[in-house]
Amino acid sequence: MLVDGYRKGLVVPEGLIAHGRGEAFDYLLGEKTSSPARTAIKAASSALMVSRYPVISVNGNLAALCAKAIVDLSQLIGAKIEVNLFYRTVKREGLIRKELKSFGATEILGMSRRKKLIIPELQSERRRVDPSGIMKADTVLVPLEDGDRTEALVKMGKTVVAIDLNPMSRTARSANITIVDNAIRTIPKMITMVKKLRDLRQDYREKVMKKAIKQFNNHNNLLESESLMRGNIARN
Ligand code: PTJ
């Protein structure tokens, strides 16, 4: 899937390396969504649902792995989609936009021709964000993110939800809610969770979501994922 994305021009060579790193961690997780990841998915889905202005940040890897699920999730929770690339080129952002549009996305933020604001403390291309997207968001979903930007977004007061197979990465540690799981499994599970929550009676739903957010402890959740991985190593 990722190799196809690379051939289509969505993914950069560095993305293949990042994917390989992810696969190694996924192997240690047993290639399935763990119980701590399920807890994080519930907290993350709740945080996105109560959010006033949620935004999903999409890079090349994510577009190659699960463009349709991203579009479905964004429509379900009313989130904006922003293409935000570490290795930005106009050609690649256009291809990613086309891919997302082919699954029904109507508005894609973050294109080069749009006015950008700069996150001052960052050096990479990821510092350029859309004034109607990540800059305005109160909650940002950042699958496969780099640590610098996660830290910067948290400092800006945003709720950051990360998806990262490496529970020790700076992104995983600095996000408010980190789902240690493969994005390809996580996004469809978030869709199921959002639908499940949406079907609850409103007053009960609010209680359930509030509790899921309040009880979530990112540090402890990461330790649980790490411990699962260590256990799997010990057993093999
Ligand atoms: O498309 P661009 O230009 O924005 O570039 C995207 C990459 C992925 C190349 C860029 O963001 C990058 O270099 O990312 P990093 O710093 O390597 O971080 C990627 C993190 O995501 C690592 O911790 C990986 O373990 C993890 N990861 C890789 N594949 C997956 C994943 N996490 C969840 N699901 C995956 N499928």
Describe what you observe in this structure:
- With 236 residues, this protein is α/β, with parallel strands linked by helices.
- Helices cover 56% and strands 12% of the residues.
- It has ten helices and eight strands.
- The strands form two sheets. The protein has a six-stranded parallel β-sheet, sandwiched between helices.
- α3 packs antiparallel against α10 and α4 crosses α5.
- The radius of gyration is 17 Å and the shape is globular.
- The structure holds ligand PTJ.
- The site of ligand PTJ has 25 residues, from α2, α4 and α8.
Task: Give the topology.
Layout: H1 2-7, H2 13-29, H3 35-50, E1 54-58, H4 60-77, E2 80-83, H5 90-102, E3 108-109, E4 117-118, E5 128-129, E6 139-143, H6 147-155, E7 159-163, H7 170-174, E8 177-179, H8 183-198, H9 202-215, H10 218-235
Parallel strand pairs: 1-2, 1-6, 2-3, 6-7, 7-8
Antiparallel strand pairs: 4-5
Ligand PTJ is lined by residues 12, 14-15, 18-19, 21-22, 25, 59-61, 65, 85-87, 144, 146, 163-166, 169, 182-184.
